[in-house]
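For the sake of transparency, this paper describes our internal protein records without simplification. Because each token names a local backbone shape, the row as a whole describes the fold. One such record is reproduced below, unchanged from the form in which we store it:
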Amino acid sequence: MKKKLYTIAVLLAFAIAVTSCLSNSEEVEITTYDDTAMSSFSLSAVNRYVHTTSKSGGDSVYLSKLAVAKYPFAIDQYQRKIYNSDSLPADCDLKHILVTATATSYSGTIAVKSATSDSLSYYSGTDSLDFSTIREFRVYNNTGDKYRAYQVQVNVKKQASSKMGWEQMPAGTVMPTTPMAGWDFIYNSAGNGFMASQDNWITSFEETFDEDIRLLPSSASASFACWKLGNGLSYALLVGNSDAQDKYAVVWRKVIDNDNPTSSSWVYIPVEVNNSYALPKLGKDSRYYLLPYINGSVLAIDDNGNIYQSRDQGITWKTSSTLQSPTSRVLKASTDGNGGIWLWTRDSDDESDPGIVWYGKAGEE
């Protein structure tokens, strides 16, 4: 028994000695910071519900994503306000927005105050927030006993724009290639017909026609467009000038079975007597840029910047106050598959002039 008590006493003495040594050594310091500030704030995802009108006058809505990089946010550290100077389009969904918020390096957590009560929740960049009203963000220090509050306001236009919004792109911007549903077309050397390929010209075949080939547009003025219809089908369209038609451009179409593309021929679309919206014939040295657009429609843009839209696959072509070009001299045009229109323009006749690339999208200013 005495031996056990002696052993315990020795262990206690050793522990006291070790504790004494540690207390005499250099103490570990823990630094805390009181400074708190929001260092950056931006949108990361915003849905848009774009309204369109069909050729019969019916309304339809389709979902798209806002180009959020075009709407930067300013942080006023003095007034503790965060806001966007350029208002979002009116058709944006403000109730479900994803944002990216970061604080200074010595700050602690970021919290968001409820829109309906005083409760707080931790900020998460993966959870959408309701910005239909001003929201309060709080940046806490790393001890959690102090914070700085910011009032975040997402500004939005009061009504949808009916104009085409255009943005001048930086020098050197490369225009996207217009989607062609995997098909390419090129006139033959004689200029009285054309070839088609769906594998980048590894294989190809000569197209056939149901009408007189004198109604084909000249190779210099011809422009093709092609888009998918679904169920293994694609729709190809061809427009241009022909000596066989004095007043209007000629329009041809083909419904392509992608598995058996030679099973159908190109069909000429005649201009009916009661058609007041036929595509005009252009001058000798002019041409259309034929571009697949949104909701199965197609655009024809001439080199003077006039934009015609067909919603019935090439039968009628209409201009509108919405689709307006920023220029009257177009050297090239394309679409990107997301409702965007790209134009390469040059105001002078100097071919060394790099010109300007414009990006436009309906419904934004």
In short: Residues 299 and 309 are 5 Å apart (CA to CA). The longest strand covers residues 38-45. The two ends are 93 Å apart (CA to CA).
